[in-house]
Amino acid sequence: xxxxxxxxxxxxxxxxxxxxxxxxxxxxxxxxxxxxxxxxxxxxxxxxxxxxxxxxxxxxxxxxxxxxxxxxxxxxxxxxxxxxxxxxxxxxxxxxxxxxxxxxxxxxxxxxxxxxxxxxxxxxxxxxxxxxxxxxxxxxxxxxxxxxxxxxxxxxxxxxxxxxxxxxxxxxxxxxxxxxxxxxxxxxxxxxxxxxxxxxxxxxxxxxxxxxxxxxxxxxxxxxxxxxxxxxxxxxxxxxxxxxxxxxxxxxxxxxxxxxxxxxxxxxxxxxxxxxxxxxxxxxxxxxxxxxxxxxxxxxxxxxxxxxxxxxxxxxxxxxxxxxxxxxxxxxxxxxxxxxxxxxxxxxxxxxxxxxxxxxxxxxxxxxxxxxxxxxxxxxxxxxxxxxxxxxxxxxxxxxxxxxxxxxxxxxxxxxxxxxxxxxxxxxxxxxxxxxxxxxxxxxxxxxxxxxxxxxxxxxxxxxxxxxxxxxxxxxxxxxxx
Length: 482
Fold this sequence. Notes:
Number of strands: 15
Radius of gyration: 30 Å
Number of domains: 4
CATH topology of the largest domain: Nucleotidyltransferase, domain 5
Structural class: alpha+beta
Oligomer: single chain
CATH architecture of the largest domain: 2-Layer Sandwich
Shape: elongated
Strand order of the largest sheet: 3-2-1-4-5
Helix content: 25-40%
CATH class of the largest domain: Alpha Beta
Strand content: 15-25%
């Protein structure tokens, strides 16, 4: 390894997302035939640097204002990296940013990459931390001006020199070049472009048929896991044989990925997805008061199912059979009368149900148990299945934010229905103007019921132009929490 041409690279950037963020500084320590050369430059990212990043790196928006843009440095950078083994700490980060900068120019950048984080973990498994700061302390590296590109590239070069004493180094490096066994029809170059970001991925087959939709907080890791030979199940092997193309859509966070995955599966009906498929027979039990104090369950299905109405709804079931079986189990566990619940017929009015004859019913069917008491016990038994009613006066925006890049997604929701995700005010206005009403969906309801009770920022949208008249400054400041 010592005889190879090596380039130790470090970047400073405006954030952590190589698709949306930009490079602010690059440092390269190139080693060839024992000769060491060092080069670095600030880069104008064409946007402001977030305050958090300015504090971390010491690079301010004013410092890069007069620096060259990446396009002006591209030839110089490519020349300095040409023919070199690309060595970086958390290399996917640095390599991904460079690939995306070149991609924006319509140019392809490719190199053999070695990650010193992975090397440290493999060669020193007894340690838990493998950050640059940990390596400085552990290996006695000479640190100067941390979080500046050339200084950190120099640290990586120092660490590499320490590794030369490790007999397993060559094998550890070789292992990083081993790629998973890809489907025969899939372009291997797609692996270099997969981001380490949350989002949804889509596998396409012949004639661009959608095979499978999945989600992850790390798209790269999740997609690659499909191709690991030691974890392949029969269905995974079948999908792999059919894949021709991979597409992905990044999201700011996990909630956006969950909502988008559920929506895509129901809208596109991928061949190999079983969970989250559309269910047009969705049902719930509603309690209807037949007489004073006499509450009976009524099954609401399809378009009749609307938990936004001011009436009690209990449980979400895939169909009438599942709903009926669930209510029967509840009745049997609580000695409720199946005839009174409408789940069983008797031989005539006032005649006992079958359960009463087996001492499994307390006698509401024959007047032995007061109907009001039976109704109260029914309500108590169903309580754990009660659906939440929509707690807002109209549509809301659930704001999901990446604190590093300062990117925000606004998930637009109304009556437990997901209407879409907006990345800016124009998209938000378009979603609200269209305001299509998708069918009520069990998976979306469960997702929203779980997350809306957590620490999410919620913006009321019933006052958006066209719905109300509140000015933009008030809309941005307003928060509602149920």
